[in-house]
Design goal:
Elements lengths: L1 E2 L5 E7 L3 E2 L11 E8 L7 H9 L4 E7 L2 E3 L2 E3 L2 E8 L4 E8 L6 H12 L4 E8 L6 H9 L7 E6 L11 E3 L2 E3 L2 E8 L3 E8 L3 E2 L4 E7 L2 E5 L2 E2 H9 L15 E4 L8 E3 L1 E5 L4 E4 L8 E6 L2 H16 L9 E7 H7 L3 H10 L7 E6 L1 E5 L6 E4 L3 E8 L1
Parallel strand pairs: 4-5, 10-11, 25-26
Antiparallel strand pairs: 1-2, 2-3, 2-8, 4-8, 6-7, 6-26, 9-14, 10-14, 11-27, 12-13, 15-29, 16-24, 17-18, 17-24, 18-19, 18-23, 20-21, 20-24, 22-23, 25-29, 27-28
């Protein structure tokens, strides 16, 4: 299957058994970006990446490993989902920085921001190693060097539910331990964004009484892992992946309307602690969350509608969807329902690619700064006047 909306857009996919779904479009240029999202196992099979580099030698090739690949209204595993856009009145740039551990996160973000900062920068799309990064600190680092009107979106690479190894595309090849980003510049480019969850809180609010960065030790003075295991029951043996079913909503203080969602990356039995994708500030208020199918699907469609609403021309929009692996676990066989809800909310002919992630990067509302999110469907739309 291939989608081609006009001379500047194209999308196509790859599987090892069937190869490429369509011939490569003649869109290579220094103003072209190739977005590619694939199963982690493709790291050991560089053939499709080499073919992309051969077909698009002048272009930027960016993307990452996934917990499921989105292509059109389809969800796949161990495939490659690709979209290409050649800009006519805008320019693009690529940046990368190493992130070998959580401690490198702010510096990596700062380096990305400094590499891309420049006149006319309108948007930055980020792809990061999903395990060796603190997403909160990464976003802080990026934001520390960029003007507040620059839209920052993207996601943390996935590895199914294994949480063992992720990669990003750097120089067109799969590499672990890096953050990469694409900068888009010019007055003619339009970048829309949407971010919705569809989860609801349950159980008591608990105070984060002991934490360090993105490691949570205690809630209400009790071991955090002990509390989670109580709610998970028999599924506690499946941690950390089963923890995705019960993310944590965080508020600065009781009664705050705004909250961020955090999901588990790892557990430590010795310290009874849990490592999350972003910071868990000590003194904040945490509450467990859950969802049902309809809430998640409706929220995905709302996210796409928000991302498309600013484009008055109602033209096709190159669309990147980043959804959390936890949503996929909840939805299971209905995961494609949320993808279909996204597609239905977009203008006809919009290429849709993306991936299931270990964390989503997006502003939560128009004019807001970028945040790390978990358990959301985030949408980025790109077009040119």
């Amino acid at each position: 299957m291939s989608t081609k909306t006009d001379t500047n857009f194209a999308s196509f996919s790859y599987t090892k058994s069937a190869g490429w779904s369509a011939p490569f479009p003649a869109l290579d240029s220094h103003a072209t970006v190739v977005f590619a999202f694939g199963g982690r196992g493709l790291e050991s099979d560089p053939t499709p990446f080499q073919q992309l580099r051969d077909a698009f030698p002048a272009s930027i090739i960016a993307g990452c490993s996934t917990s499921g690949e989105i292509f059109g209204d389809r969800l796949s595993d161990d495939s490659l989902s690709v979209a290409v856009m050649r800009f006519q009145r805008s320019r693009v740039s690529f940046a990368s920085a190493p992130v070998r551990s959580n401690a490198d996160s702010f510096a990596a973000g700062d380096a990305i921001g400094r590499q891309l900062s420049g006149i006319g920068l309108r948007g930055v799309i980020v792809f990061a190693d999903g395990l060796n990064v603190n997403g909160t600190e990464l976003v802080r680092g990026i934001s520390s060097t960029l003007p507040p009107d620059v839209v920052v979106t993207g996601g943390l690479a996935g590895d199914g539910t294994a949480f063992k190894r992720t990669w990003v595309l750097r120089n067109g090849a799969a590499e672990t331990g890096f953050v990469t980003a694409v900068g888009i510049y010019g007055d003619q480019v339009r970048i829309g964004h949407g971010c919705k969850g569809g989860w609801d809180v349950f159980g008591p609010e608990r105070v984060v009484t002991r934490s360090a960065g993105n490691v949570l030790f205690e809630l209400d003075g009790k071991p955090a892992l002990e509390i989670y295991k109580k709610y998970l029951g028999e599924r506690a043996a499946e941690l950390p992946s089963s923890g995705l079913l019960f993310p944590l909503a965080l508020r600065n203080q009781r009664g705050d309307a705004r909250s961020l969602v955090r999901t588990i990356l790892a557990v430590d039995e010795a310290t009874q602690s849990m490592t999350f994708a972003g910071d868990i500030p000590q003194g904040s208020i945490g509450q467990l969350m859950r969802a049902n199918f309809d809430w998640l699907v409706d929220a995905a469609g709302d996210s796409a509608a928000d991302a498309a609403v600013g484009d008055a021309a109602c033209r096709p929009l190159l669309t990147i969807a980043v959804s959390c692996v936890g949503r996929r676990l909840i939805l299971n066989d209905r995961a494609e329902d949320e993808i279909e809800a996204v597609r239905a909310a977009l203008p006809p002919g919009s290429p849709l690619v993306g991936f299931y992630s270990y964390g989503e990067l997006s502003p939560s509302a128009t004019g807001a700064a970028c945040d790390l999110h978990n358990q959301t469907m985030t949408i980025t739309t790109i077009s040119e006047d």
